[in-house]
Amino acid sequence: MKVLIVGSGGREHAIAWKIAQNKKVEKIYCAPGNAGIEEFAECVPIGAMEFDKLAAFAKEHEIDLTVIGMDDPLVGGIVDVFEAQGLRVFGPRRNAAILEGSKAFSKDLMKKYHIPTAAYENFDDSEKALEYLETAKFPIVLKADGLALGKGVLICQTLEEAKAGVKSIMLDKQFGASGNRMVIEEFMTGREVSVLSFVDGKTIKTMTSAQDHKRAGDGDTGLNTGGMGTFSPSPFYTKEVDEFCEKYIYQPTVDAMAAEGREFKGIIFFGLMLTEDGPKVLEYNARFGDPETQVVLPRMKTDLVEVFEACIDGTLDQIDLEFEDNAAVCVVLASDGYPVKYEKGYVISGFENFKDKDGYYVFHAGTKKTEKGIVTNGGRVLGVTAKGADLKKARANAYDAVNWISFENKYYRHDIGKAIDEA
């Protein structure tokens, strides 16, 4: 079996690592890939948005399965392009990927089908948005409608801050065309939890829970990022929470998409807030989370390729999805200055420390192979993941492993998973 993965981050490295464990898979390609993915796959210099080139490559190399890791190509319709050419591909079609591609669409879907979420209003006129703020309660949340690399959400404490936020999103186009429309919603308080799920159009099977740390600085300070670290499972995601979400959020979302003529096959990522009034949906994503994947897949016992195929074939109900009874923590090693301005090209050392170390992993995100060796090539450089019998042990192991890697301007948060100590 030959597999093509589309993407170049830590998430795609984790997917490649997991796929490589399937004995039927004889060859993995990744476009465009990164220095770490090369251990498992042949990296191909085709961009994730070059749909026709990717489809032509898949045909020429007789690829049996293509896995789309990133949001942009999914929202752009890469699955439709592949399917039109008779190629087997894992991920939602364009009309289903809108679940992530438009926050206004997903909020309206939740309202229509009574799926618990924060109260909100949609705006495509900045003047009307500014008028609405005059009567709003603070703090309040502003969201660019489209994709914004996980950074298009502003939490505003005051009216002045919110007005400045509307200006930056809708007028200054801080997030480009993603800010042509925006959602203004009530600020919810509680614990955040991420739950990824596999979906085959009708059946949904959830993975183990996780929790992301979005802010750049310790103590959840600083700017929003693509994610500075994760832990799994969340001690706050109880059996009662799971049962509530299954009944009122997970299956109703799949059914709602089907009822709208937008059959969803692939990954639905549920960003949840555990409020005093029960769990509510913060956001949906239409693909694996990054860096959530780096703690979820190492704990997954079930073969990933079999699950992908079941989602495509509509036979997910026949899969027994199993996870290890342990924990994992991922600490992102970033370039100092991320997410604003940072230097690239620093040599990374210490990868050999992970060889033959069971339960320790280093997933590459922004790296590149050069004559000098592997160098930094992005804001988020590596994800250091470790497992442990419980969350405290996994956290200690992950922070030990962080010290095994060295590069100039290495930056990371010191409190990933610290919430576990309060559970």
UniProtKB/TrEMBL annotation:
Pathway: Purine metabolism; IMP biosynthesis via de novo pathway; N(1)-(5-phospho-D-ribosyl)glycinamide from 5-phospho-alpha-D-ribose 1-diphosphate: step 2/2
Superkingdom of origin organism: Bacteria
Reactions accelerated catalytically: 5-phospho-beta-D-ribosylamine + glycine + ATP = N(1)-(5-phospho-beta-D-ribosyl)glycinamide + ADP + phosphate + H(+)
Domain spans labelled ATP-grasp: 107-313
InterPro entries given in the database record: ATP-grasp, ATP_grasp_subdomain_1, PreATP-grasp_dom_sf, PRibGlycinamid_synth_ATP-grasp, PRibGlycinamide_synth, PRibGlycinamide_synth_C-dom, PRibGlycinamide_synth_C_sf, PRibGlycinamide_synth_CS
Entry EC number(s): 6.3.4.13
SMART domains found in the cross-reference section: GARS_A, GARS_C
Gene3D superfamilies, A to Z: 3.40.50.20, ATP-grasp fold, A domain, ATP-grasp fold, B domain, Phosphoribosylglycinamide synthetase, C-terminal domain
Any GO molecular function: phosphoribosylamine-glycine ligase activity
Alphabetical keyword list: ATP-binding, Ligase, Nucleotide-binding, Purine biosynthesis
Cofactor(s) demanded: Mg(2+); Mn(2+)
Principal EC category: ligase
Annotated signal peptide: none
Pfam families, per the entry: GARS_A, GARS_C, GARS_N
Protein's UniProt keywords contain Ligase: yes
Family: Belongs to the GARS family.
NCBIfam families on file: purD
The protein, known as: Phosphoribosylamine--glycine ligase
Organism: Muricoprocola aceti
